[in-house]
């Protein structure tokens, strides 16, 4: 491979804002695997956000890229899987599997798509120093003849339309809006873009904790909600505390620590079978294959209000943010019924619409 922009490349990132800023280019924030595509003739490499290779996990994407993109180019985009008219991140996670036979099977039953939103190189020319507006124009021209499952991300300069996307497409699993300054060159690894994400709050039961890697202080709180059958389901974690607060939390929660998991709603999680069955606290990482089964059970008596952006199935898609303790709430009141369900919207028309694709 001999391209003007060579792997590895860290993708340009975004910092969070509360409102959509004016005077920018706006795109939907895709909930998938960020991927930098390097193509030189028949050779194609997919690099992840951490620069780890993704190529072997998405053979159908590689085949589609070989058919639809220029023979020498570097693209920034997102690998996504759409099922039932919305993005399915869990199906993406299943693709990170060591067995090639399993990867091939999933490529057939849950094929992925690639949504391109930036062009870093074309032919023998690097576009990294070109402004965003120029790169966008070059991208739409380079992919004007592309077809499914390779798409150009819809974009607009109209903040009102971006706000409409922000509201309408959440039900399809989109993560929010990304705003890009028109004059911005491509800055690998820098948070030079702006992202606006949905935020809601929920009252959750704190039923366990993980200790921080630095020592016996809280690393994260394990959160639960009661389902319709009265079972406490794990819905995610709350983390990102200052170090002093981690120590305070350990002191606050010490009276709730259980000597063992016996009698805890999640006591089955210590079994290998349970760990293999889903994303449980301390479960194996699909990226590293390593296990960390260390979590401390707490009597499920404390309620915390957390902020979250959106749900992926029956759990929080991203790490929730601590807001406050709720001593005025009983654990039994922490149910799925309190969660707001956005209206669903089919992505197909959005991806293929020509009216906002330029």
UniProtKB/TrEMBL annotation:
In terms of Pfam families, this protein maps to: DNA_ligase_A_C, DNA_ligase_A_M
User: What's the protein here called?
Assistant: DNA ligase (ATP)
Task: Provide the GO MF annotations for this entry.
Answer: DNA ligase (ATP) activity
- Record the organism: Actinacidiphila epipremni
For whether the record's keyword set contains Methyltransferase, the answer is: no
InterPro entries, alphabetically?
Adenylation_LigC-like (IPR044119), ATP-dep_DNA_ligase (IPR050191), DNA_ligase_ATP-dep_C (IPR012309), DNA_ligase_ATP-dep_cent (IPR012310), DNA_ligase_ATP-dep_CS (IPR016059), NA-bd_OB-fold (IPR012340), OBF_LigC-like (IPR044117)
| Enzyme Commission no | 6.5.1.1
Q: List keywords of the entry alphabetically.
A: Ligase
